[in-house]
């Protein structure tokens, strides 16, 4: 009986049966679910109690008109761009007119614990990095377990799993790629980047692309947590621990990768001496032709989708291993939500064929699900011709977790590395302080 109630409830909420429709007869329900008429009547009484249906004497069970429900969705500042969120939510509300979605932006992941404003929020859009932050805060128990669609990429699902339960639904993802200006390469008579490039190849070409008119060959936003870890990941090694302290990294490929990053960012022959505040600023310079190559995600490329810029993408150059960093956006439901059924409806819509199609048609973001066909032609959007190259890069995707470091130590690690890259400390001090300051209990 419980199964029947759950199925009918979801069918009513999803609009299979709309207000004024009659459910199939009790006899038909009994046959469908293999229940007695008595059990069917008992189950229908539960739906009446939930005010989903009403009994019409001698006629049947009719779906009631729903009162308006408001659910709240917390989202990061770039999610409006990453999934064309406003249009996506408008399409959802057209499908479910009784559900109003109140979207609330956040600059950094809010505290979900307690009964404050964020603690009462129904849904959260978060990335895999945010998920680890919640794990460190012991706040994952605030999230409702969800069921992954069968066609979701397993490696994306695993980023949101804790204690065997998926606590956020993957929506879109992206590898970091090399984005380049095709016209600049053609002007300089240079072959376009490909998957064989090392960072030495990038430097060589970037020097040739740089000119005396204020154009530089390459740049990226070094402080971003989705940029600098790439060099460490490409070492093919990870940090090792010994009784709560990091082992000395002297003599490792990790340290050599840190050196390589320093040589790259300090090379004034290819990059401007400018303190970028965000990836968005670099993309703006790339869009205006001031930079020939940049590190970018498919999510960030949405800033280029309405331009006439002639650009394309390639796998990022590599050091020891051809690895890149992957970013995954997901949606989570507050376990304490007062409108959990409606919140789950939004999740189901976002991973439905209709939701995925909206994202594919209106953005350059990649849905977190296997697709039967991929097209680099998106009417109305400036899409790179090598859009589908991400499929050949899936083997190389890694996350910060692969460095074997808890999320809590990343701010300290980033601070020490930036001091080293700025020549405020030398290699000896860097290695010593890594072992001292990144200790965990």
TrEMBL record:
SMART domains: HTH_GNTR (SM00345). SUPFAM superfamilies: Periplasmic binding protein-like II, Winged helix' DNA-binding domain. Keywords: DNA-binding, Transcription, Transcription regulation. Residues 1-66 form the HTH gntR-type domain. CDD domains: WHTH_GntR (cd07377). The keyword Transcription applies. InterPro entries: Bact_solute-bd_prot1, SBP, Tscrpt_reg_HTH_GntR, WH-like_DNA-bd_sf, WH_DNA-bd_sf. Pfam families: GntR, SBP_bac_8. It comes from the Bacteria. One of its GO terms (molecular function) is DNA binding. This is Extracellular solute-binding protein. It comes from Paenibacillus hemerocallicola.
């Amino acid at each position: 009986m419980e199964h029947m109630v759950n199925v009918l409830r979801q069918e009513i909420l999803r609009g299979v049966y709309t207000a004024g429709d009659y459910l199939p007869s009790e006899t038909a329900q009994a046959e469908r679910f293999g229940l007695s008429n008595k059990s069917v009547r008992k189950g229908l009484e539960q739906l009446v109690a939930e005010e989903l249906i009403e009994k019409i004497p001698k006629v049947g069970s009719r779906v009631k008109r729903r009162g308006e429900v408001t659910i709240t969705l917390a989202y990061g500042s770039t999610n409006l761009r990453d999934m064309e969120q406003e249009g996506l939510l408008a399409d959802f509300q057209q499908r479910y007119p009784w559900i109003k979605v109140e979207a609330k932006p956040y600059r950094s992941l809010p505290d979900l614990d307690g009964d404050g404003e964020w603690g009462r929020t129904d849904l959260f859009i978060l990335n895999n990095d945010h998920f680890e932050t919640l794990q460190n805060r012991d706040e994952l128990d605030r999230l409702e377990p969800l069921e992954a669609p069968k066609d979701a990429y397993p490696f994306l699902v695993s980023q949101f799993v804790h204690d065997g339960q998926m606590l956020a639904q993957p929506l879109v993802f992206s590898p970091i790629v090399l984005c380049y200006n095709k016209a600049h390469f053609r002007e300089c008579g240079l072959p376009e980047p490909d998957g064989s490039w090392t960072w030495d190849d990038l430097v060589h070409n970037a020097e040739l692309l740089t000119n005396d008119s204020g154009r530089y060959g390459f740049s990226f936003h070094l402080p971003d947590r989705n940029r600098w870890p790439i060099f460490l990941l490409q070492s093919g090694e990870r940090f090792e621990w010994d009784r709560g302290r990091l082992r000395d990294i002297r003599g490792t490929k990790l340290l050599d990768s840190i050196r390589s990053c320093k040589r790259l960012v300090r090379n004034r022959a290819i990059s401007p001496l400018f303190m970028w505040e965000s990836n968005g600023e670099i993309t703006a310079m790339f869009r205006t032709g001031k930079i020939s190559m940049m590190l970018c995600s498919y999510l960030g490329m949405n800033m280029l989708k309405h331009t006439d810029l002639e650009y394309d993408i390639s796998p990022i150059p590599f050091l020891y291993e051809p690895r890149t960093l992957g970013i995954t956006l997901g949606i989570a439901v507050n376990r304490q939500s007062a409108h959990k059924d409606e919140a789950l409806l939004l999740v189901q819509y976002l991973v439905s064929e209709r939701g995925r199609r909206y994202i594919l048609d209106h953005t350059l973001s990649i849905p977190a699900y296997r697709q039967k066909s991929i097209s680099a032609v998106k009417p109305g959007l400036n899409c790179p011709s090598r859009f589908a190259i991400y499929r050949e890069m899936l083997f190389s995707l890694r996350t910060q977790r692969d460095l074997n470091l808890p999320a809590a130590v990343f701010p300290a690690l980033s601070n020490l590395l930036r001091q080293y890259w700025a020549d405020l400390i030398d290699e000896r001090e860097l290695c010593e302080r890594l072992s001292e300051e990144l200790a965990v209990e």
